[in-house]
Amino acid sequence: MASVKREKFKPLGGPDGGNGGDGGDVTLIVDSQTTTLLSYHHAPHRHGGNGGPGMGDFRNGATGESLTLSVPDGTVVKDAEGNILADLVGHGASFVAAEGGMGGLGNAALSSAKRRAPGFALLGIPGDERDIVLELKSVADVALVGFPSAGKSSLIASISAARPKIADYPFTTLVPNLGVVQAGDTRYTVADVPGLIPGASEGKGLGLEFLRHVERCAALVHVLDCGSLESDRDPLSDFEAIEAELAAYAVEPTFAQGGQGVIPLNERPRLIALNKTDLPDGQDMADMVRSTLEARGLRVFEVSAVSHKGLDPLKFAMADLVRQARERLPEPEEIAAPEVIRPRSVRSRKGRSGEFEIRREERNLEPLFRVRGVKPERWVAQTDFTVDEAVGYLADRLNRLGVEDELFKQGAKPGDAVVIGSDDDGVVFDWEPTMAAGAELLGGPRGADLRMEDRQRPTREDKRRDYEERKAARAATQADLEGERRTGVWAVDQEINRLAGISDDETGTSDETDETSGSGTADEADTTRGSGSEDSHG
């Protein structure tokens, strides 16, 4: 707000415009009670509160209300190009997805000893606006993978307290189910990954939606259906098909791998669970394929989720893999003493390195100088270009920062184009080096700047050219006058004036004429005084 205090006996009590309030942030935070991202699918647009405008009488605007969004544990935040911004693991983990804007300054905050009554205010800076992608990747120690209807949901329901939906048709499970398993002194989590099919790594059957939940797991358990009624399927072909999809899937680097690097899915520790061995043909099928799988170096367990056959050995085998994976994690670093951050001095040296940079470019065969830096770009965004005094204030700030001196060093000439900012939000100026700093010393009404009234300001070249022309004209005039004096033009004029009866004061005659006239006047005065004396005595 740009305001001036007015009250009785104080018509101009000084500037009293308040500052604008900052905008609210948008923050993502992990909440254990949130299990899905479905709400963001139905309402994808979220925004924080706006800051209130400043008012007169030194009243600042209210701060905008921040928006906190709850996300499930294991949410990965990406930008529109797919780059990972944050990996939110653990209750309470947070990420500021968009920062609120900064409120503008009122004219009361801009007043100084020299600029007593600013007639302008600085604009607020808009907050961040971005598109992000949220992906949920289950946080589990062991993943159960296999074809649809292989019995994964039944198995996790048997070894944990999870109660997923179980039915006798493919793709009963559409979202992963997590279960906590206790095996001796080891407690770990198991994820029931929805069924995979050939081509899952290419996106078939929502394969990519399911495979991403396996990325965080330290070990895998292949659940093979030994009682399948399909004639074209058998446990060995199912295992090879799933292994091929795991090898083809590219694991994304995340921030929660403890420095171990990215381990492909097909290289992680694996166990084989031959399920449905309680069926008449299930045990026979398990006996046929067990030796082949063990020959490949795999540990095989014959289990039945219905009769709980062989579940305990499988649980303890999974606990061993989880314990080994946890032992490989690096030791947590000791928390060092917090570093004391001391604020930099406001009165820094002009043109300090790192505050801005100037690059020389070329556009339409004409030189162009681009100024990039946090301060210059922020100052341009804060300037109201409809107010001349605000533009002059911007010029003063840029000059104090050293932008004009650096432009001189870069070889900029008057009239060259100068861009502050990027091509999207930059502001283009025609550089005028003659604009001196010190807008607070210029007179004029509030909100006006005399430097801005004349849009066609002469450059240094124009001023130098005008000075040389005036100097040459003055020399020519002096030469003409000297020539007239030498030819006697002035003496002839004086004689003509004397015969015409024009006084010397009106013509400005020479010293010689003044002396002659003065002598005649003196004689006449003496004669007059003599006559007067004689008359007086008589």
Automatic annotation (TrEMBL):
Residues 1-25, 439-538 are annotated as: Disordered. Residues 503-515 have a biased composition (Acidic residues). Residues 1-139 form the Obg domain. Residues 1-10, 448-472 have a biased composition (Basic and acidic residues). Residues 348-433 form the OCT domain. Residues 140-323 form the OBG-type G domain. Gene3D superfamilies: GTP-binding protein OBG, C-terminal domain, GTP1/OBG domain, P-loop containing nucleotide triphosphate hydrolases. Keywords: Cytoplasm, GTP-binding, Hydrolase, Magnesium, Metal-binding, Nucleotide-binding. This is GTPase ObgE. The gene is obgE.
